[in-house]
Amino acid sequence: MEKEIVLALRGLTKRFGPVTAADDINLTLHRGEVLALLGENGAGKTTLMNMLFGHYTPDAGHVEVSDFKGGMLRLPPGHPQAAIDAGIGMVHQHFTLAENLNVVDNILLGAEPLFAFRRDQKAAREKVRKLMEDTGLHVPMGARVGELSVGERQRVEILKALFRETRILVLDEPTAVLTPQEADGLFAALSAIVKRGLSVIFISHKMREVLSFSDRIAVLRHGVKVGEMATEDADRAAIARMMVGAETVQPERDSLVPGAPILAFEDVHLRGEGARAGLKGASFTLHEGEILGIAGVSGNGQTALAQIISGLAVPERGAVILNGTPVTAASPAAMIAAGVGRIPEDRHHDGVISAMSVAENMVLERLDDPEIQNRGFLNKPAMKANAERLSREYDVRGPGISARATLLSGGNIQKLILARVLDRAPKLILANQPTRGLDFGAAGEVGRRLLAARREGAGVILISEDLDEILQLADRILVMHSGQLIETDSRDRAAIGLLMAGQAA
Amino acid sequence: MMDILQIFLSESFWAASLRIATPLIFGVMGALLCERAGVLNLGIEGIFAAGAMAGWMAVWLGAPLWLGVGAAACAGAFFGALHATLTVPLGLSQHVSGLGITMLATSSSYFLYRTALPDVTSPPRITPFQPLDWPVVSDIPFIGPVFFGQTALTWLALFTVLAVWWLLARTPLGVALKAVGDNPDAVNAQGLSVYGLRFGAVMAGSALMAIGGAFLTMSAFDAFFFGMVNGRGWICIALVIFASWRPGRALFGAILFGMFDALQVRLQTEAGAVVPSQVFLMTPYVLSIIALVLVARKADYPRALLQPWFKGQR
């Protein structure tokens, strides 16, 4: 049975200079349908959605929405307000909430006439309350958004979109920051609303969600729609092949016998900053040739852990022992000298100095190396040779080694950091969210590099919110929740998810 | 010690505190509006001068007093629009642009004054706003002279506080304004204009600052002097932080500063023979620095303050 079409993208094309970000894309969305949009970073998903919303003006093609009377209405291009008026709502990957305002204010922002002498606070709250009842998405109404958990903020985002009689909801990577339980709850709530006629376009990297939640899947690659299928006919390998355009090889973890202990935390305490948890008595031991996965939702003490290992914070209590030597109060330079390689969480902010060149960024941690520096002068030819070799070995692509690092894409910045860190053959690698925001191909590359370092005998601390990644790469798993670490032998998603939510399994 | 108590009990002290606070109330409300929308307006010191000059000049040329206030507001809005143009769509440094506006507005005011009056030695006077004379209430002891003996501009200042508070707390426009100073992406995603809101806030805020300047030439004094703003604008910038961007606390801060200043004048006459007068002159500033240090560490900044926002970028 074919349902009524609510949205049609007709031949949408967008060019940025010589690059065609979206090439003649046709898509239709039916009433009460969930369409998953899959593709690697840079495949054109965001460009497409920005055209749908009128944030970009397409070079060719147009958007049509149903006019409720069986006909289709053509949206004027480049007009966000027209898209909103036509009932299209979007939940961005990065929340667009004003944290200093409360929930009601955020939901009503822009949904009411701007120039009014006063607002009927009671009626507004009543309307929001009713919406929460109807959708089953509950959030404390008077709370400041800054005080809410990430899951709650996402609910506010969705409520905000639904408040305006939205017929078509676009979700951009909605589960990137949720625990598995929160994600399941979100999909359950959305499914109920979809049954009542909401149509959803759902952008995601996560195969598992796409297969379980969507009705239809469209795959984009290099700005072209390369495939479209009903979800029931789809299988993982076929979709992955379509996305990458080649057979994908998942990194394989071969069995290794771990060596001597390399890093030990003994009852380490550190106070957290603001809403983020610190560490409350963390103890663990990492061995050579071992990847220790730290699972958990961000803000539960991962930052404190990473800062201590990087030498950026000194614990209030407890001891940190690296290779048999206490390093509890070591400086970052001492940690680097002791053989710690750091892949920071925020690669743009902490990983590179964006105004400096690729070659310069590649020697940041070797500035006292006589090969690079001699009596206070940089050895430019050596830096150039070093950068050329590393770019080749680690496949760092971009405008060249003398270009500023800011011109590199996220995946290539991560490769630059990997090259800088792994080339020094560190004994201990701290990888903090190493694949966040990376596409399939680049994420696979990071995983393979970490496994290769493990084979060389390095110990790896892998902090990640992506449970699949932890399950795939880690030899042992610790779950982090409000500053505490719990080791688990389980490889079961649901059990680990419960620990991530702070409930004993 | 008795003398200080005497000062605090005198009605003239409290009347003076409120009078001295009046331009600061306008200025601090103006700065608060700009900063709540995410734009720091360091043009305030110059906009004070421009308002003082424009208001006085209009009246001197024969306009009624309230038209003078209007002229000052327009001058302020003009420099506000300039600041907004440079910092909002063009995204230039708000510090640099603001300091530039201060220099431009101050010197162009002086220039205009000198051009209009090339060879006067003593500044020409106008008839300024007079203290209001209310029936009955003006005769209440203490309360009467302190509140009801003020000029209409002081009442306008107090009303402005109420209006700004109402705007921010009770109206959809106020919510949008706070949101644009907190996360412009949130405003843009809802189809509202980030540029429009910021432009409006900076222009309105600058108009208020200029009315604060006009108070100096049209109520506190009756003529325009060079250097008469004398750092009042900078005090307002500090007071906004002291107030954590809240109108009620900003009013409190402005009156507190007015009290320090009124006290300083009186202490000079009391103890001027023993202590150099400069010590008293600096007390309000020293005390505001201390107050700022105590409060500002915990201040709750608008999160997007100083952050330029560009359409189509995330």
**Helix content estimate of chain A:** 25-40%
Mean pLDDT of chain B: 90
Percent helix range of chain B: over 70%
Write the CATH fold name of chain B: ABC transporter involved in vitamin B12 uptake, BtuC
- Low-pLDDT runs of 5+ residues of chain A are none
Average pLDDT of chain A? 86
Broad CATH class of chain B: Mainly Alpha
Looking at the overall shape, the CATH architecture of chain B is Orthogonal Bundle
What is the approximate shape of chain A? Answer: globular
Tally of structural domains of chain B = 1
User: Would you give the CATH topology of the largest domain in chain A?
Assistant: Rossmann fold
Would you state the CATH class of the largest domain in chain A? Answer: Alpha Beta
Radius of gyration of chain A: 25 Å
Low-confidence blocks of residues of chain B: none
Query: What's the helix-strand series of chain B?
Result: HHHHHHHHHHHHH
The total of beta strands of chain B comes to 0
Give me the secondary-structure topology.
The complex is a heterodimer of chains A (505) and B (314).
Chain A: E1 5-16, E2 19-30, E3 34-39, H1 45-52, E4 60-66, E5 72-74, H2 80-85, E6 88-91, H3 103-108, H4 121-135, H5 150-162, E7 168-172, H6 180-195, E8 199-203, H7 207-213, E9 216-221, E10 224-230, H8 236-244, E11 261-270, E12 279-287, E13 290-295, H9 302-310, E14 317-322, E15 325-326, H10 332-337, E16 340-343, H11 347-351, H12 358-362, E17 373-374, E18 377-378, H13 380-393, H14 410-422, E19 428-432, H15 440-455, E20 459-464, H16 467-473, E21 476-481, E22 484-488, H17 493-500
Parallel strand pairs in A: 3-8, 3-9, 6-7, 7-8, 13-20, 13-21, 16-19, 19-20
Antiparallel strand pairs in A: 1-2, 1-4, 4-5, 9-10, 11-12, 11-14, 14-15, 17-18, 21-22
Chain B: H1 2-9, H2 11-36, H3 44-60, H4 65-87, H5 94-116, H6 143-148, H7 152-170, H8 172-182, H9 184-189, H10 194-220, H11 232-242, H12 247-271, H13 277-296
Helix pairs in contact in B: 1-12, 2-7, 2-10, 2-11, 2-12, 3-4, 3-5, 3-10, 3-11, 4-5, 4-10, 7-8, 8-10, 11-12, 11-13, 12-13
GO molecular function (chain B): transmembrane transporter activity
InterPro entries (chain B): ABC_transp_permease
Protein name (chain B): Branched-chain amino acid transport system / permease component
